[in-house]
Design a protein that fits this description.
By secondary structure, the chain is α+β, with helices and mostly antiparallel strands. Helix content is about 35%, strand content about 15%. It contains five helices and five strands.
Length: about 160
């Protein structure tokens, strides 16, 4: 039976009517028009639908929208402020980590999360941290370079 839920998406309160079996992925893409959240495998295998749910990376194809009631959801659009790219977004552009762009939003969000937790990651830790996402173009080298390039900005903003 459809019901209304409230989410905070990229800092904005959203009231959305959802069905009991409706996925967070579908609500974000189809009802809130956040097309950066990619629909790819619908099984949690590729990670391209990754969003931050209360600051934690989750695969939105595995979360019912109703489970996100009252939660804060961040998509890649929520990382930039007033039209200015975040340090990790800039680093992806500057290091050619975009390739076709299909996986980029998920990698950017996950990288942001990883750097916020530990801006001093080794290359091995970075590779392990992003291992749950699939880049169809194989741009892993550029993605790792972008994460390393953005790290100083996260160190500077750490308390």
């Amino acid at each position: 039976m459809p019901r209304e839920i409230n989410l905070k998406v990229n800092g904005k309160d959203e009231n959305v009517i959802v069905k009991d079996n409706e996925l967070l992925l579908d609500v974000l893409r189809d009802k809130l028009q956040l097309k950066s959240v990619k629909a790819s495998c619908w099984r949690g295998e590729c990670g391209l639908c990754t969003v931050l749910l209360n600051g934690v990376p989750v695969k939105s194809c595995l979360i019912l929208a109703a489970e996100a009631e009252g939660c804060e959801v961040t998509t890649v659009e929520g990382l930039s402020k007033d039209g200015v790219l975040s340090p990790i977004q800039k680093a992806f552009v500057e290091n050619g980590a975009l390739q076709c762009g299909f996986c980029t939003p998920a990698f950017v969000l996950l990288s942001h999360h990883l750097l916020a937790i530990n801006p001093d990651m080794s290359e091995e830790e970075i590779r392990e941290g992003i291992s749950g996402l699939i880049c169809r173009c194989g741009a892993y080298k550029q993605i790792v370079s972008a994460i390393k390039a953005a790290a100083p900005s996260y160190k500077a903003s750490s308390p």
